[in-house]
């Protein structure tokens, strides 16, 4: 991305991005050009949420400067040029409400396949994500943490997670541990053993049918 000719660029307020990756050059580019009360939303690779030492230090400074508003994890296969999952960053220059919080939304299981290689978010999916963010940002009573979907994490929680911004780090911790009785466990084991027996029977039938096939020399 040209680090050798841009080392002294004024955009690198939070640190010089590594020469090998432009993620934090882009992130700081967006921040640099925001208005005093500006908001930026953009798509990044998931690696930007937890990248190594040099990028991690830049991420820490951005978070401590109260610039990160929301992170949304997306499902894979959303984009035609790559099947890898990505994420949405939402940054702000003047956080008033929720100043010491970051909203995490896990949308990685949302959407539906329209073919084998492409997933699509429905209008309802998009509306749910948008409503969750705006209700949280505006501090309305409609917002509340939803286990497995969204979590408003404090700055202290993010510090305890070493400034990693992967939504699952915060959201999954909010899910209550599921308990199971011995009777339920015995039933699950019995059902699993039955499925294994049925699979073995089907495999034997398939092998016998293959052996009966006549092969033309």
Topology of helices and strands:
Layout: H1 3-6, H2 23-32, E1 39-45, H3 53-64, E2 68-73, E3 86-92, E4 101-106, E5 112-115, E6 118-120, H4 123-137, E7 150-154, H5 155-160, H6 168-171, H7 182-212
Parallel strand pairs: 2-4
Antiparallel strand pairs: 1-3, 2-3, 4-7, 5-6
Characterize this entry briefly.
This protein has helices at residues 3-6, 23-32, 53-64, 123-137, 155-160, 168-171, 182-212, and strands at residues 39-45, 68-73, 86-92, 101-106, 112-115, 118-120, 150-154.
Q: What can be said about the biggest beta sheet?
A: 5 strands, mixed
Number of strands: 7
Q: Uncertain runs with pLDDT below 50, 5 residues or more?
A: none
Distance between the termini: 60 Å
Give the SSE string.
Answer: HHEHEEEEEHEHHH
Q: Which class of secondary structure composition applies to the elements?
A: alpha+beta
Shape annotation:
extended
Number of helices: 7
Helix share, percent: 25-40%
Mean pLDDT, to the nearest integer, reads 89
C-alpha Rg (nearest Å): 24 Å
Strand order of the largest sheet: 1-3-2-4-7
User: How much β-strand is present in the residues?
Assistant: 15-25%
